[in-house]
Amino acid sequence: MAFHKIINDPVYGFITIDDELVFNIIAHPYYQRLRRIQQMAMAHLVYPGAVHTRLHHSLGAYHLMCLALQELTRKGIDITPAEQQAAKIAILLHDVGHGPYSHALEQVLAEGVHHEKISLLIIEALNQKFDGKLQMALEIFTGAYPKKYLHQLVSGQLDVDRMDYLTRDSFFSGVVEGYVAYDRILKMITVHNGELMVEEKGIYSIEKFLIARRLMYRQVYLHKTVVSAEQMLQRIIKRAKFVAAACAQPLNSFINEPLQNITLDQFCSIDDADVMMAIKTWCSHSDKVLALLSNGIMNRNLLKVKYSATPADEAFVKRTKLAVMQHYELNEADANWLVFEGNASISTYDFDDNPIKILYKNGEVKDIAQVDDALINESLRGKSKKYYICYIGL
Amino acid sequence: MAFHKIINDPVYGFITIDDELVFNIIAHPYYQRLRRIQQMAMAHLVYPGAVHTRLHHSLGAYHLMCLALQELTRKGIDITPAEQQAAKIAILLHDVGHGPYSHALEQVLAEGVHHEKISLLIIEALNQKFDGKLQMALEIFTGAYPKKYLHQLVSGQLDVDRMDYLTRDSFFSGVVEGYVAYDRILKMITVHNGELMVEEKGIYSIEKFLIARRLMYRQVYLHKTVVSAEQMLQRIIKRAKFVAAACAQPLNSFINEPLQNITLDQFCSIDDADVMMAIKTWCSHSDKVLALLSNGIMNRNLLKVKYSATPADEAFVKRTKLAVMQHYELNEADANWLVFEGNASISTYDFDDNPIKILYKNGEVKDIAQVDDALINESLRGKSKKYYICYIGL
Amino acid sequence: MAFHKIINDPVYGFITIDDELVFNIIAHPYYQRLRRIQQMAMAHLVYPGAVHTRLHHSLGAYHLMCLALQELTRKGIDITPAEQQAAKIAILLHDVGHGPYSHALEQVLAEGVHHEKISLLIIEALNQKFDGKLQMALEIFTGAYPKKYLHQLVSGQLDVDRMDYLTRDSFFSGVVEGYVAYDRILKMITVHNGELMVEEKGIYSIEKFLIARRLMYRQVYLHKTVVSAEQMLQRIIKRAKFVAAACAQPLNSFINEPLQNITLDQFCSIDDADVMMAIKTWCSHSDKVLALLSNGIMNRNLLKVKYSATPADEAFVKRTKLAVMQHYELNEADANWLVFEGNASISTYDFDDNPIKILYKNGEVKDIAQVDDALINESLRGKSKKYYICYIGL
Amino acid sequence: MAFHKIINDPVYGFITIDDELVFNIIAHPYYQRLRRIQQMAMAHLVYPGAVHTRLHHSLGAYHLMCLALQELTRKGIDITPAEQQAAKIAILLHDVGHGPYSHALEQVLAEGVHHEKISLLIIEALNQKFDGKLQMALEIFTGAYPKKYLHQLVSGQLDVDRMDYLTRDSFFSGVVEGYVAYDRILKMITVHNGELMVEEKGIYSIEKFLIARRLMYRQVYLHKTVVSAEQMLQRIIKRAKFVAAACAQPLNSFINEPLQNITLDQFCSIDDADVMMAIKTWCSHSDKVLALLSNGIMNRNLLKVKYSATPADEAFVKRTKLAVMQHYELNEADANWLVFEGNASISTYDFDDNPIKILYKNGEVKDIAQVDDALINESLRGKSKKYYICYIGL
To answer: Are residues A160 and A91 in the same domain?
Structure first.
């Protein structure tokens, strides 16, 4: 009897691991670390169920990749067993380079280094440890592998990454409207001219998929309280760097040393707990700004946020800043850490890059935005930008 | 302890009846008849689970009305107990005038009489039987009652009727993408200037609601096989009238007598079973067309359908018709019953009538199609029309 | 690309038909007839969602058979493609012999002939029509095929028939407690010594399965209102025979002719609608008993029922019968149709026949009722019998 | 408009907070700390979705308490608004005394002090902060309040705590068989003679509830891998105390100081992250046992476990211990930390303490274990004990 492990998943029922190499990669400490990194960072402050991990998401995306490959194979697309294994490994590891609180801290903990870059470094390291068996996965991950559609399944406007995170984030947050009919979509995909496409009858499911994504961004990922908490998290780390606040190793190196001093092993040894513990320590730090922000996150005493369609009213910002300076006895530079503006934008569909293509029965191919009676049409082009102001309560 | 009955519902869990008048209306034969009328007519030929009844849908809509009234009351809208009872009764009975196979046969069994007209007649009849206690329900049903929003809950672009049928039809057909977040929407409704509106934060839920409806129409209600079966059903009745085919009473009167001879009691005594039994009888009728169509429906041997964005190719229609005439030995007039064209159209949103209004926190009111970055915008105006041709296989 | 059809199912998501013979059997009128026979007869009078059909249940059981065969094959059990096809066809057709309202009328419409007998006749007829291709399915159905476990999957204490009907009936009735973890159980089955067994780690799932069944019988199938309605249905047919009440053909033959005159084709042409239409006709029959019962069913005006642990109090029965005789002006013989006693019994587990066997890792085999700390143990032996009295209200 | 907050919950849909005092208690840091304590400790190593928090469970139990009080009130039980508020607060805070990894570390972090004792201390502290407004909640929590059933709802064999944790743990772990029909059960509860009881028709739901609990214990809470991980966690802390291993404050005090030195504030400042960070530090500790266990937990490299119905085979234990001593170069005393025996036991129902009482329609009261044909009967009396041996792999 072949290798066979089953994992219970509240979202998909069961996830099956029937490849020993895949199993061994999952067992590796680099991968297990993802257990300690929450998928949705601070979103649980609004949606208390949203505490699932990057490990869980990666396993889910892996499961959807299995379903996708099975369907394409059934449709006669020739994908070798080695390619199938490689595509599964590529998706399994696509997020392995995420650091603590993933996106929320990506820009501040390893400034200027995108998590995909680190994922790549880790996959390369694992490739060495596993005697080059991850070589093809590496190529699929970077897009170098000739069968382009395998990379598109890992990363594109209709990849299994998005399909899983929307499904999973919607499930755990309880925002059922974010539900994505992943099973139906995965029965509608096909390959044409070497590219991933969707069969004609899948048009409405794709529309729904894009609308679900649109809703999740607006209602969950960019929920004003979530934005506030994640802004606070970023500012805590930035302020800690600014005032050279100490914390336990190895996180301390990320705060107080230049990035080039840090090794991959050090990176792989930090997770959400390191940041959380540092913040706990900083709750009683002598720097007032750091202490205010740290206590705020710990006790869910968050900065207030106002969204608007236009940049914030300057008079209001000025007035608020003055009040904060007085109330907390801060100079203006410090008050700027506690009263600040920003903006967020999200497009429903990227009209220019890597379009979702529909394959008609008659062989015609159309961009989803160009089908008859398209819901996703040019009228939506342009990122939708929203402005916000965050400020501490008095 | 007050009157209290609980009904198990796979969709909502439990439906509570805590009003004796409502209970007595449910117990009345006119209402119980709805048990024998399927909500989705022939859709079960494609979606085998879609066999739920008009009675079940009406109970569901009643349940959502209870939730809506509860939320509005909580928000301080003054709705008297009598008005609440009346609104509940109005929605409970909104479909009571549906005949066998409801929409599918509406135009042919009682030609020229809309089911809402018959619902009104039945509500009036019940009002007499219940000593005038349904008077206010009648007024809400017709829109005569001053509090316009009560009628809007019964009938409008965001009424509890649509909310239930989308939710329920999606549930029973297994087309999960048609899911509507009725619970969230019902927490977002409010009344402003006497009209039903949706709070600002409900915008994305409303968008999703409209998209879900769009999808259900395209994927389910107008599924080509469903259209074929329902066209066949209509043509069976029309052909039966045409050839004066007999069947059991009282359905026979509907076939072979002028409409004005038919009483309300006769109308209320026919249901899906009468039509089904008549069709069984006609399977061996001497009229070839009637027999072909009847056998087709009974054994799920349906006419073929082709959809297209433009009217059907005349050459194809002609060619097909000739082949059918030859194969089945029919003249052209008869072949026209088995080879015919039609069209179906569905708008995502009605831009002109009874718009869905959004109430902003600052008191502003906007049509959902006019909000910033609207998904439902002018680019979708105009019904989307699709053409089809139906024809019998050879 | 191989033959491949997908059917939406609210219970399992998608059911796949990837065998053309299976597809052709489904398309046959004998099978399509099951669309017109409700799975749960009169249970919808209590659980309005419980209107699903025998066709839907058969498709569901077929789906579970596919999963079961897939799992056994994965575990190295050698099952040939022909055997797999045969087992799928056997389960698909296991209920094809059900008549109108299935179990509820089984004893009265074709007295003395069990539905499995008729299923067998129909499978034989289909075997002829399909050139003997159903021969192996026939053998599996009857238990004649050497691989006993294939028959056990079709019919046994842990067959896919039960697994589907519990799951499906629970789903449509909304009694979520009847939920059965069919997916987990199907991952735990295996074959040992030619018999179907359950792996050790599946013990608790099996316990839950038996308890779910226990609950469904007590709460749903033997719900007092359901029992009342089904008793009424039986008595309507019996009374119709007794008074030789006429109705439309072919049902009329079942009522007014000896069983041996009836052909298989006649049997296959009646369904729920025939019975429902006959009952409608009898609502105004001159026989008072028949008319009372018929109106009761049509308008959900049901006989009252009292359950008790012991046979009904004779004094109460006598008193009630007298009151009914007076009120409805009936003689005692006729009153006996409207006031009567009965009993129902259901065992949680059949200790003697076809036990569910657990296969331990060490190779040991135990009856589920004999495992350590068994929930299902000898203390439950013996059918649990409940007595009821049904009587018409005054 | 009254105070009104809504929280999205994937399990129940929405949880409503409509009481400002309740809201303020939730906002308190003592309560917010529960966000950082996982409900199921190490179970996520087997069930990756099981990462929900004590805060989420407490909110869920609060929600069920609201439903329970609403139902009892509807049934005419007189519960004052003050009592309702108090019962809600009591359940909200019932777990507030849990420390890091709750049950798993309860016995080692604060030896000899049960978490309910600490909950009580915290409720008293909060009572002071909130000017005595939690006095009645305190009395309900301790059982001192005269209306005994309010305490039974908080703590008993059928309390809302169990109902929520079974429902929630089943949901997040994906072990759907643990599902509890909380909504049906909560419609069946009543109060009789001052005690909480279940109406007769709820018997089967209660049986299912007990069986679901039985299954969750056997399949999840006492899953051998979960037991292994939790044993390792306990041994890490014990070993850290034994070798006086240092870690960051304030956890360090718990390890290296007598319990009486620790304040409530110190207790309330530690959570899962403190333990996780300490374990990370100890991964490179000079004590080999501590380092082995710490690395094991971090990288999911767990001790092996064997369950058996009888105490472990002594020869096997001895042989294993010797092998471990040799392989890891340890003396016997140290090897005992890595090879050890234990047992776990769980009764399906507690026959002696606080029975679940059924109230029959005729006024009779029976213990659920004494009803006719009881599934939960004397044959199950006695805890079911299972023995295990844990040992490190070589």
So the answer is: yes
